[in-house]
Design goal:
Elements (H helix, E strand, L loop, with lengths): L2 E6 L4 H9 L6 E8 L8 H5 L11 H4 L4 E2 L3 H10 L5 E3 L5 H13 L4 E3 L15 H4 L6 H8 L6 E3 L6 H12 L4 E10 L25 H12 L2 E2 L4 E2 L5 E8 L6 E9 L7 H10 L3 H5 L9 E3 L8 H4 L2 H4 L2 E8 L5 E7 L3 H17 L4
Parallel strand pairs: 1-2, 1-4, 2-3, 4-5, 5-6, 7-10, 12-13
Antiparallel strand pairs: 7-11, 8-9, 11-14, 13-14
Helix pairs in contact: 1-14
Bound molecules: NADP nicotinamide-adenine-dinucleotide phosphate.
The site of NADP nicotinamide-adenine-dinucleotide phosphate has 29 residues, from helix 1 and helix 14.
Length: 365
Amino acid sequence: MKTAVGVLGATGMVGQNYITLLREHPWFEVRHVAASPRSAGKKYGDAVAGRWQPADDCDPRVGSLTVEDAGDVSGAAAANKRGDCAFVFSALEMGKDETRALETAYAAAGIPVISNASAHRWTADVPVLVAEINHRHADIIPRQRKNHGWDRGFIVVKPNCSIQSYMIPVYALIRAGYPVERIIVTTMQAVSGAGYPGVPSLDMIDNIVPYIGGEEEKSEKEPLKILGAVGDGVFENAALPRISAHCNRVPVSDGHTACVSLEFGGKKPASVEAVKKIWAEFRDLPQEMGFPSAPARPVIIREENDRPQPRKDRGAGGAMAVVIGRVRPCGVFDIRFTALSHNTVRGAAGGGILNAELLKHKGYL
Ligand code: NAP
């Protein structure tokens, strides 16, 4: 029998991707959808009419569910007791403090929260999970529950979508014994990353916007928590790599591209070919366990000079793989490359679902 789950922020850009990706999921089934009071009380299909973004039509079964008010935690707790909402994916876009308070209230009510929002990323005992990198960080959950006096609830989050394309390759190099000391990265980020209705259309025709509020800080800091260690019930950040990020909004619908230059801190791979081999062979727990949303190859190398490209490569590995091309020596650091990942799938709903699969595998769900 499938586990019944809820989606908070179900009507938004990421929420719609959850509904789409969970339609045929072998383990989970959406039975609770919630959004703002503007959508609450409507049938889900009516609430998203005119703003539905995924290519596939909305799942009619979910379309007929009534949208709940995400602020109604006791209603969600009742759904949890009925067996209709074992845990929630959170794709809320509201004030940071409000989001943090609401997600905390769900956890306190006994409902685990797997969040895409940034509100809890710097909460000391909340793991920022990328299943292929730091799945062991999930094991802080019993301590987190103890810290807060929660019995069944907990909170895990996933990182910002801008770092997905280069953190798995960087981690693969570190795991292979080549610590990375410095990174300079320039991202070209899709408009779907700005939610709905997003960036004004006039800014995105014949144009690039060289600023995304808060994105550069997240890109520079979140990797240090992901690569960090579990200390005494809280996370301790890694000291390296030092990262300098330039984040740009570009006229692409889906798929964030990153141009990366990196420097190793000590031992270096023998050649560009050696780096490519590490990436091509990289697998971790999600692949070894065959989680339903895990791409068979988390990193795919393209040898053509003009790849990766968002339109051609964002769907690779069920839109869960990172596609890398143009791997070459760097005149200033050691190597440089271009990497691409799908921001609303690997970078948002798909990454959240993969985290849920990991948590179920570990027995926390
Ligand atoms: P979005 O399209 O603006 O959707 C926001 C959702 O939040 C909608 O369902 C909306 O409901 C709901 N909401 C807004 N105000 C609310 C309130 N006061 N109470 C309850 N619900 C409320 O945003 P998005 O792009 O899907 O992003 C969702 C979250 O994922 C954000 O935290 C974002 O930072 C994060 N994220 C997004 C991406 C991406 O690529 N888009 C990637 C990674 C992470 P209504 O429809 O009723 O207004």
